[in-house]
Amino acid sequence: MENSPSDRKNAVLVWISEDDDLVDETKELCSSAGYTIIAEVRQSKDQPHTRYYIGPGKIIELKDIEGIDHLITPVDLTPSQIFNMGKMSGLTVVDRIRVVLELFRSRATSPEARLQVEMADLKYQLPILREFIHQGTLSDRPGFLAGGEYRVDYYYEMARKRMAHIKDQLRILRKRRGMTRTLRKRRGSHLVAVAGYTNSGKSTLLNAISDARMPEKSVDTADRMFTTIATSTRKMKGDRDCIITDTVGFIRDLPPWLVEGFMSTLEEVFESDIILLLVDASEDKEKATRKTLDSLDILRRGNCSGKIILVMNKMDAILEGSDHIIPERDLPFEYFNTIDAQIEISARNEEGLEDLIKSIEALLPDLFRVRIELPLTSGSERIMKIIRDRSIDLKIDYSGTLATIECRMEERWAMSLKKMLNAEGGSLDMEI
Ligand SMILES: Nc1nc2c(ncn2[C@@H]2O[C@H](COP(=O)(O)OP(=O)(O)OP(=O)(O)O)[C@@H](O)[C@H]2O)c(=O)[nH]1
Ligand SMILES: [Mg+2]
User: Residue 266: CB partners within 8 Å, gap ≥ 6?
Assistant: First the structure.
Protein backbone atom coordinates (compact mmCIF):
# COMPACT_ATOMS: atom_id res chain seq x y z
CA MET A 1 0.00 0.00 0.00
CA GLU A 2 1.49 3.35 -1.02
CA ASN A 3 1.17 6.29 1.30
CA SER A 4 -0.79 9.12 -0.26
CA PRO A 5 0.92 12.53 0.01
CA SER A 6 -1.49 13.61 2.74
CA ASP A 7 -0.39 10.64 4.88
CA ARG A 8 3.22 11.70 4.69
CA LYS A 9 4.87 12.53 7.96
CA ASN A 10 7.34 15.39 8.31
CA ALA A 11 10.58 14.55 9.99
CA VAL A 12 14.00 15.77 10.92
CA LEU A 13 16.84 13.34 10.33
CA VAL A 14 19.56 13.60 12.97
CA TRP A 15 22.84 11.73 13.11
CA ILE A 16 26.42 11.87 14.29
CA SER A 17 29.35 11.79 11.87
CA GLU A 18 30.27 8.26 12.88
CA ASP A 19 27.06 7.04 11.24
CA ASP A 20 27.46 8.96 7.96
CA ASP A 21 27.47 5.86 5.79
CA LEU A 22 24.02 4.78 6.96
CA VAL A 23 22.36 8.06 6.06
CA ASP A 24 21.62 7.54 2.35
CA GLU A 25 20.00 4.18 2.93
CA THR A 26 17.93 5.57 5.79
CA LYS A 27 16.68 8.35 3.54
CA GLU A 28 15.52 5.75 1.02
CA LEU A 29 13.85 3.75 3.79
CA CYS A 30 12.12 6.90 5.07
CA SER A 31 10.87 7.86 1.67
CA SER A 32 9.51 4.33 1.09
CA ALA A 33 7.82 4.45 4.51
CA GLY A 34 6.05 7.76 3.86
CA TYR A 35 8.29 10.24 5.68
CA THR A 36 9.30 13.57 4.22
CA ILE A 37 12.61 14.71 5.61
CA ILE A 38 12.37 18.46 5.84
CA ALA A 39 15.48 19.07 7.91
CA GLU A 40 18.79 17.32 8.50
CA VAL A 41 21.01 17.79 11.52
CA ARG A 42 24.49 16.26 11.61
CA GLN A 43 26.78 16.51 14.59
CA SER A 44 30.54 15.88 14.39
CA LYS A 45 30.99 13.31 17.09
CA ASP A 46 32.78 9.96 17.33
CA GLN A 47 30.64 8.42 20.01
CA PRO A 48 26.88 8.56 20.48
CA HIS A 49 25.67 10.25 23.65
CA THR A 50 24.54 7.44 25.95
CA ARG A 51 21.32 9.15 26.97
CA TYR A 52 20.50 11.30 23.94
CA TYR A 53 22.43 9.84 20.96
CA ILE A 54 23.27 13.40 19.75
CA GLY A 55 24.20 16.11 22.21
CA PRO A 56 21.29 17.38 24.31
CA GLY A 57 22.05 20.95 23.21
CA LYS A 58 21.38 19.96 19.58
CA ILE A 59 18.06 18.40 20.55
CA ILE A 60 16.88 21.64 22.08
CA GLU A 61 17.74 23.40 18.81
CA LEU A 62 15.34 21.04 17.00
CA LYS A 63 12.45 22.79 18.69
CA ASP A 64 13.04 25.78 16.40
CA ILE A 65 12.39 23.76 13.23
CA GLU A 66 8.84 24.36 12.08
CA GLY A 67 6.43 21.77 10.81
CA ILE A 68 8.10 18.58 12.04
CA ASP A 69 6.60 15.96 14.28
CA HIS A 70 9.08 13.10 13.97
CA LEU A 71 12.75 12.71 14.76
CA ILE A 72 14.50 9.98 12.80
CA THR A 73 17.92 8.42 13.35
CA PRO A 74 19.83 6.19 10.90
CA VAL A 75 20.80 3.83 13.72
CA ASP A 76 18.98 1.76 16.31
CA LEU A 77 18.55 3.57 19.61
CA THR A 78 18.39 2.21 23.13
CA PRO A 79 15.02 2.45 24.91
CA SER A 80 16.41 5.12 27.19
CA GLN A 81 17.66 7.19 24.25
CA ILE A 82 14.19 6.96 22.68
CA PHE A 83 12.61 8.06 25.94
CA ASN A 84 15.02 10.90 26.62
CA MET A 85 15.15 12.27 23.10
CA GLY A 86 11.38 12.20 22.87
CA LYS A 87 10.91 13.88 26.19
CA MET A 88 13.38 16.64 25.45
CA SER A 89 12.27 17.36 21.86
CA GLY A 90 8.54 16.72 22.16
CA LEU A 91 8.84 14.75 18.88
CA THR A 92 8.01 11.13 18.14
CA VAL A 93 11.36 9.37 17.96
CA VAL A 94 11.72 6.87 15.14
CA ASP A 95 14.89 4.85 14.83
CA ARG A 96 15.98 2.78 11.86
CA ILE A 97 14.32 -0.45 12.96
CA ARG A 98 11.06 1.28 13.52
CA VAL A 99 11.14 2.64 9.96
CA VAL A 100 11.76 -0.89 8.68
CA LEU A 101 8.94 -2.23 10.85
CA GLU A 102 6.53 0.40 9.56
CA LEU A 103 7.48 -0.52 6.02
CA PHE A 104 6.98 -4.21 6.69
CA ARG A 105 3.63 -3.51 8.30
CA SER A 106 2.37 -1.59 5.28
CA ARG A 107 3.48 -4.38 2.92
CA ALA A 108 2.31 -7.41 4.88
CA THR A 109 -0.52 -8.98 2.94
CA SER A 110 -0.30 -12.69 3.73
CA PRO A 111 -1.46 -13.97 7.13
CA GLU A 112 2.03 -15.27 7.90
CA ALA A 113 3.69 -11.97 7.05
CA ARG A 114 1.18 -10.11 9.21
CA LEU A 115 1.95 -12.35 12.16
CA GLN A 116 5.69 -11.99 11.63
CA VAL A 117 5.40 -8.23 11.54
CA GLU A 118 3.21 -8.13 14.62
CA MET A 119 5.68 -10.31 16.48
CA ALA A 120 8.64 -8.15 15.47
CA ASP A 121 6.67 -5.05 16.42
CA LEU A 122 5.93 -6.42 19.89
CA LYS A 123 9.54 -7.45 20.38
CA TYR A 124 10.54 -3.93 19.48
CA GLN A 125 7.98 -2.28 21.73
CA LEU A 126 8.39 -4.30 24.91
CA PRO A 127 11.82 -3.04 26.03
CA ILE A 128 10.74 0.52 25.27
CA LEU A 129 7.59 0.01 27.25
CA ARG A 130 9.65 -1.35 30.10
CA GLU A 131 11.72 1.83 29.99
CA PHE A 132 8.59 3.97 30.11
CA ILE A 133 7.32 2.05 33.13
CA HIS A 134 10.74 2.36 34.70
CA GLN A 135 10.78 6.10 34.17
CA GLY A 136 7.30 6.17 35.68
CA THR A 137 6.38 9.32 33.84
CA LEU A 138 3.54 8.11 31.72
CA SER A 139 1.63 11.34 31.89
CA ASP A 140 4.23 12.99 29.73
CA ARG A 141 5.09 10.08 27.49
CA PRO A 142 6.13 11.71 24.26
CA GLY A 143 4.02 10.32 21.51
CA PHE A 144 4.93 6.68 21.99
CA LEU A 145 1.97 4.31 21.57
CA ALA A 146 -0.08 7.45 21.17
CA GLY A 147 -3.84 7.02 21.41
CA GLY A 148 -3.60 3.83 23.47
CA GLU A 149 -6.31 3.51 26.09
CA TYR A 150 -4.59 0.78 28.06
CA ARG A 151 -2.57 1.33 31.14
CA VAL A 152 0.95 0.48 30.17
CA ASP A 153 1.53 -2.37 32.59
CA TYR A 154 -1.71 -3.99 31.45
CA TYR A 155 -0.64 -3.54 27.84
CA TYR A 156 2.70 -5.10 28.70
CA GLU A 157 1.01 -8.23 30.02
CA MET A 158 -1.31 -8.44 27.01
CA ALA A 159 1.64 -8.07 24.66
CA ARG A 160 3.45 -10.99 26.27
CA LYS A 161 0.40 -13.22 25.97
CA ARG A 162 -0.10 -12.22 22.37
CA MET A 163 3.53 -12.99 21.58
CA ALA A 164 3.19 -16.51 22.95
CA HIS A 165 0.08 -17.05 20.81
CA ILE A 166 1.74 -15.72 17.64
CA LYS A 167 4.76 -17.91 18.25
CA ASP A 168 2.54 -21.01 18.22
CA GLN A 169 0.75 -19.89 15.07
CA LEU A 170 4.02 -19.19 13.28
CA ARG A 171 5.37 -22.59 14.28
CA ILE A 172 2.38 -24.28 12.63
CA LEU A 173 2.65 -22.22 9.45
CA ARG A 174 6.36 -22.84 9.27
CA LYS A 175 5.93 -26.58 9.63
CA ARG A 176 3.34 -26.58 6.87
CA ARG A 177 5.68 -24.72 4.56
CA GLY A 178 8.50 -27.13 5.34
CA MET A 179 6.24 -30.01 4.40
CA THR A 180 5.29 -28.42 1.08
CA ARG A 181 8.97 -27.93 0.33
CA THR A 182 9.81 -31.55 1.12
CA LEU A 183 6.94 -32.77 -1.05
CA ARG A 184 8.12 -30.65 -3.95
CA LYS A 185 11.63 -32.04 -3.61
CA ARG A 186 10.33 -35.61 -3.43
CA ARG A 187 8.24 -35.06 -6.53
CA GLY A 188 11.49 -34.22 -8.24
CA SER A 189 11.34 -30.43 -8.47
CA HIS A 190 14.53 -28.44 -8.04
CA LEU A 191 14.12 -25.46 -5.78
CA VAL A 192 15.49 -22.15 -6.96
CA ALA A 193 15.29 -19.01 -4.81
CA VAL A 194 15.72 -15.40 -5.83
CA ALA A 195 17.51 -13.57 -3.05
CA GLY A 196 19.36 -10.30 -2.67
CA TYR A 197 19.25 -6.80 -1.39
CA THR A 198 15.93 -5.02 -1.32
CA ASN A 199 15.06 -3.27 -4.62
CA SER A 200 17.60 -5.28 -6.64
CA GLY A 201 14.87 -6.55 -8.98
CA LYS A 202 13.99 -9.94 -7.47
CA SER A 203 10.25 -9.79 -8.16
CA THR A 204 10.83 -8.43 -11.66
CA LEU A 205 13.07 -11.43 -12.34
CA LEU A 206 10.54 -13.86 -10.87
CA ASN A 207 7.83 -12.49 -13.18
CA ALA A 208 10.14 -12.65 -16.20
CA ILE A 209 11.54 -16.12 -15.60
CA SER A 210 8.43 -17.95 -14.43
CA ASP A 211 5.93 -19.64 -16.65
CA ALA A 212 3.70 -16.78 -17.76
CA ARG A 213 0.56 -18.85 -18.05
CA MET A 214 -0.96 -16.97 -15.17
CA PRO A 215 -0.14 -13.30 -15.82
CA GLU A 216 -2.75 -12.21 -13.28
CA LYS A 217 -0.53 -13.80 -10.66
CA SER A 218 2.41 -11.52 -11.33
CA VAL A 219 4.21 -10.27 -8.24
CA ASP A 220 4.26 -6.55 -7.36
CA THR A 221 7.37 -4.62 -8.27
CA ALA A 222 8.17 -0.99 -7.53
CA ASP A 223 11.14 1.30 -7.15
CA ARG A 224 11.08 1.37 -3.38
CA MET A 225 12.41 -0.77 -0.56
CA PHE A 226 10.70 -3.91 0.72
CA THR A 227 7.94 -4.16 -1.87
CA THR A 228 7.92 -7.89 -1.22
CA ILE A 229 7.88 -9.29 2.26
CA ALA A 230 6.13 -12.61 1.70
CA THR A 231 7.29 -15.40 -0.58
CA SER A 232 5.73 -16.32 -3.94
CA THR A 233 6.48 -19.52 -5.76
CA ARG A 234 6.14 -20.27 -9.49
CA LYS A 235 7.20 -22.83 -12.01
CA MET A 236 10.34 -21.70 -13.84
CA LYS A 237 10.66 -21.55 -17.65
CA GLY A 238 13.09 -24.00 -19.24
CA ASP A 239 13.29 -27.74 -19.79
CA ARG A 240 13.93 -28.82 -16.23
CA ASP A 241 11.41 -29.02 -13.41
CA CYS A 242 12.37 -26.01 -11.33
CA ILE A 243 10.21 -24.20 -8.81
CA ILE A 244 11.30 -20.62 -8.25
CA THR A 245 10.58 -18.53 -5.15
CA ASP A 246 10.77 -14.78 -4.61
CA THR A 247 11.80 -13.71 -1.11
CA VAL A 248 12.05 -10.76 1.23
CA GLY A 249 14.93 -8.42 0.45
CA PHE A 250 18.08 -8.19 2.54
CA ILE A 251 19.32 -5.05 4.22
CA ARG A 252 22.43 -4.44 6.27
CA ASP A 253 22.67 -4.39 10.03
CA LEU A 254 19.24 -5.60 10.96
CA PRO A 255 19.22 -6.75 14.55
CA PRO A 256 19.24 -10.54 14.96
CA TRP A 257 15.78 -10.70 16.54
CA LEU A 258 14.25 -8.98 13.54
CA VAL A 259 16.06 -11.14 11.00
CA GLU A 260 15.02 -14.17 13.02
CA GLY A 261 11.39 -13.12 12.65
CA PHE A 262 11.77 -13.38 8.92
CA MET A 263 14.01 -16.44 8.98
CA SER A 264 11.13 -18.72 8.15
CA THR A 265 10.66 -16.71 4.96
CA LEU A 266 14.37 -16.91 4.33
CA GLU A 267 14.23 -20.66 4.93
CA GLU A 268 13.00 -20.87 1.35
CA VAL A 269 16.37 -19.43 0.40
CA PHE A 270 18.53 -21.48 2.73
CA GLU A 271 16.87 -24.75 1.73
CA SER A 272 16.98 -24.15 -2.01
CA ASP A 273 19.16 -26.10 -4.41
CA ILE A 274 20.14 -22.95 -6.25
CA ILE A 275 20.16 -19.34 -5.11
CA LEU A 276 20.05 -16.51 -7.60
CA LEU A 277 21.74 -13.74 -5.66
CA LEU A 278 20.67 -10.53 -7.34
CA VAL A 279 22.85 -7.45 -7.40
CA ASP A 280 21.82 -4.06 -8.76
CA ALA A 281 24.75 -3.54 -11.13
CA SER A 282 23.62 0.00 -11.94
CA GLU A 283 24.74 1.18 -8.53
CA ASP A 284 28.33 2.19 -8.03
CA LYS A 285 30.66 -0.73 -7.65
CA GLU A 286 31.61 -0.08 -4.05
CA LYS A 287 27.96 -0.01 -2.98
CA ALA A 288 27.12 -3.10 -5.04
CA THR A 289 30.08 -5.00 -3.59
CA ARG A 290 29.12 -4.09 -0.04
CA LYS A 291 25.55 -5.20 -0.60
CA THR A 292 26.79 -8.45 -2.15
CA LEU A 293 28.91 -9.11 0.91
CA ASP A 294 25.99 -8.33 3.23
CA SER A 295 23.85 -10.78 1.25
CA LEU A 296 26.51 -13.50 1.23
CA ASP A 297 26.88 -13.03 4.95
CA ILE A 298 23.16 -13.63 5.52
CA LEU A 299 23.34 -16.78 3.36
CA ARG A 300 26.31 -18.00 5.36
CA ARG A 301 24.64 -17.33 8.69
CA GLY A 302 21.59 -19.28 7.49
CA ASN A 303 23.82 -22.29 6.72
CA CYS A 304 22.75 -22.10 3.13
CA SER A 305 23.89 -25.20 1.28
CA GLY A 306 22.63 -24.39 -2.22
CA LYS A 307 24.72 -23.35 -5.18
CA ILE A 308 24.96 -19.61 -5.69
CA ILE A 309 24.70 -17.74 -8.97
CA LEU A 310 25.63 -14.09 -8.67
CA VAL A 311 23.21 -12.32 -11.00
CA MET A 312 24.23 -8.81 -12.05
CA ASN A 313 20.87 -7.20 -12.81
CA LYS A 314 19.86 -3.86 -14.39
CA MET A 315 22.60 -4.16 -17.01
CA ASP A 316 20.47 -1.92 -19.27
CA ALA A 317 21.08 0.93 -16.82
CA ILE A 318 24.86 0.82 -16.57
CA LEU A 319 27.11 3.24 -18.39
CA GLU A 320 28.74 1.87 -21.51
CA GLY A 321 32.10 0.30 -20.67
CA SER A 322 31.77 0.71 -16.91
CA ASP A 323 33.19 -2.00 -14.72
CA HIS A 324 30.57 -3.72 -12.61
CA ILE A 325 31.59 -7.38 -12.41
CA ILE A 326 32.59 -8.36 -8.89
CA PRO A 327 35.55 -10.75 -9.28
CA GLU A 328 35.68 -13.51 -6.72
CA ARG A 329 39.22 -12.46 -5.82
CA ASP A 330 37.77 -9.16 -4.50
CA LEU A 331 35.67 -11.00 -1.94
CA PRO A 332 37.07 -11.78 1.51
CA PHE A 333 38.66 -15.21 1.77
CA GLU A 334 35.73 -16.72 3.69
CA TYR A 335 33.69 -16.42 0.49
CA PHE A 336 36.29 -18.17 -1.62
CA ASN A 337 34.61 -20.71 -3.87
CA THR A 338 31.08 -19.85 -2.73
CA ILE A 339 29.95 -18.44 -6.06
CA ASP A 340 29.25 -21.04 -8.72
CA ALA A 341 28.56 -18.69 -11.64
CA GLN A 342 28.17 -15.02 -12.46
CA ILE A 343 25.68 -13.84 -15.09
CA GLU A 344 24.62 -10.43 -16.43
CA ILE A 345 20.97 -9.75 -17.12
CA SER A 346 18.31 -7.11 -17.40
CA ALA A 347 15.24 -8.56 -15.74
CA ARG A 348 13.10 -5.63 -16.82
CA ASN A 349 14.09 -5.91 -20.50
CA GLU A 350 14.18 -9.70 -20.31
CA GLU A 351 17.76 -9.80 -21.55
CA GLY A 352 20.18 -12.57 -20.61
CA LEU A 353 17.42 -14.77 -19.22
CA GLU A 354 18.14 -17.69 -21.54
CA ASP A 355 21.77 -17.69 -20.41
CA LEU A 356 20.62 -17.51 -16.82
CA ILE A 357 18.31 -20.49 -17.28
CA LYS A 358 21.16 -22.38 -18.98
CA SER A 359 23.50 -21.67 -16.09
CA ILE A 360 20.85 -22.80 -13.60
CA GLU A 361 20.35 -26.01 -15.55
CA ALA A 362 24.09 -26.58 -15.76
CA LEU A 363 24.19 -26.75 -11.96
CA LEU A 364 21.45 -29.38 -11.76
CA PRO A 365 22.20 -33.11 -11.81
CA ASP A 366 23.18 -34.38 -15.27
CA LEU A 367 20.62 -35.87 -17.61
CA PHE A 368 21.26 -39.32 -19.10
CA ARG A 369 19.89 -40.65 -22.36
CA VAL A 370 17.78 -43.72 -21.64
CA ARG A 371 16.02 -46.31 -23.73
CA ILE A 372 12.98 -47.95 -22.21
CA GLU A 373 10.88 -50.91 -23.28
CA LEU A 374 7.50 -50.91 -21.63
CA PRO A 375 5.02 -53.75 -22.21
CA LEU A 376 1.53 -52.25 -22.46
CA THR A 377 -0.39 -53.81 -19.61
CA SER A 378 -2.86 -52.55 -17.04
CA GLY A 379 0.02 -51.17 -14.94
CA SER A 380 1.82 -49.43 -17.78
CA GLU A 381 -0.21 -46.23 -17.72
CA ARG A 382 1.08 -45.33 -14.27
CA ILE A 383 4.69 -45.94 -15.32
CA MET A 384 4.16 -43.94 -18.51
CA LYS A 385 2.96 -40.99 -16.43
CA ILE A 386 6.06 -41.13 -14.26
CA ILE A 387 8.25 -41.24 -17.37
CA ARG A 388 6.46 -38.21 -18.85
CA ASP A 389 6.80 -36.28 -15.59
CA ARG A 390 10.48 -36.99 -15.04
CA SER A 391 11.97 -36.76 -18.51
CA ILE A 392 12.60 -34.41 -21.40
CA ASP A 393 13.04 -34.94 -25.17
CA LEU A 394 10.59 -37.80 -25.03
CA LYS A 395 10.06 -40.00 -28.12
CA ILE A 396 7.57 -42.88 -27.95
CA ASP A 397 7.15 -45.62 -30.49
CA TYR A 398 4.21 -48.02 -30.14
CA SER A 399 4.34 -51.42 -31.82
CA GLY A 400 1.73 -53.96 -30.86
CA THR A 401 1.82 -54.44 -27.11
CA LEU A 402 5.18 -52.75 -26.58
CA ALA A 403 6.13 -49.08 -26.22
CA THR A 404 9.72 -48.17 -26.98
CA ILE A 405 10.71 -44.89 -25.40
CA GLU A 406 13.75 -42.70 -25.76
CA CYS A 407 14.24 -39.73 -23.47
CA ARG A 408 16.63 -37.98 -21.09
CA MET A 409 16.32 -38.11 -17.33
CA GLU A 410 18.26 -37.84 -14.08
CA GLU A 411 20.05 -40.92 -12.85
CA ARG A 412 17.97 -41.14 -9.65
CA TRP A 413 14.72 -41.44 -11.66
CA ALA A 414 16.24 -43.87 -14.13
CA MET A 415 17.32 -46.10 -11.25
CA SER A 416 13.95 -46.26 -9.59
CA LEU A 417 12.14 -46.68 -12.92
CA LYS A 418 14.43 -49.55 -13.86
CA LYS A 419 13.20 -51.50 -10.84
CA MET A 420 9.57 -50.82 -11.71
CA LEU A 421 10.09 -51.79 -15.35
CA ASN A 422 11.84 -55.03 -14.48
CA ALA A 423 8.87 -55.97 -12.30
CA GLU A 424 6.55 -55.32 -15.29
CA GLY A 425 8.69 -57.36 -17.70
CA GLY A 426 10.15 -54.26 -19.36
CA SER A 427 13.64 -52.80 -19.38
CA LEU A 428 15.61 -49.59 -19.07
CA ASP A 429 19.09 -49.00 -20.46
CA MET A 430 21.16 -45.97 -19.65
CA GLU A 431 23.69 -44.49 -22.05
CA ILE A 432 26.56 -43.18 -20.04
N1 LIG B 1 16.65 -0.47 -15.23
C2 LIG B 1 16.24 -1.60 -14.69
N3 LIG B 1 15.39 -1.58 -13.65
C4 LIG B 1 14.99 -2.75 -13.14
C5 LIG B 1 15.43 -4.00 -13.63
N6 LIG B 1 14.88 -4.98 -12.89
C7 LIG B 1 14.10 -4.36 -11.96
N8 LIG B 1 14.16 -3.02 -12.12
C9 LIG B 1 13.45 -2.00 -11.32
O10 LIG B 1 13.94 -2.00 -10.00
C11 LIG B 1 12.88 -1.69 -9.09
C12 LIG B 1 12.77 -2.77 -8.04
O13 LIG B 1 12.34 -3.97 -8.63
P14 LIG B 1 11.62 -5.12 -7.80
O15 LIG B 1 11.50 -6.29 -8.73
O16 LIG B 1 10.41 -4.62 -7.12
O17 LIG B 1 12.78 -5.38 -6.75
P18 LIG B 1 12.78 -6.38 -5.50
O19 LIG B 1 14.17 -6.88 -5.37
O20 LIG B 1 11.70 -7.39 -5.66
O21 LIG B 1 12.47 -5.36 -4.33
P22 LIG B 1 11.85 -5.65 -2.85
O23 LIG B 1 10.72 -6.60 -2.99
O24 LIG B 1 11.41 -4.30 -2.47
O25 LIG B 1 12.97 -6.17 -2.02
C26 LIG B 1 11.61 -1.55 -9.94
O27 LIG B 1 11.40 -0.20 -10.22
C28 LIG B 1 11.98 -2.31 -11.22
O29 LIG B 1 11.27 -1.87 -12.35
C30 LIG B 1 16.33 -3.99 -14.75
O31 LIG B 1 16.76 -5.01 -15.27
N32 LIG B 1 16.70 -2.77 -15.23
MG1 LIG C 1 10.09 -7.78 -4.51
Answer: 195, 247, 248, 259, 298, 302
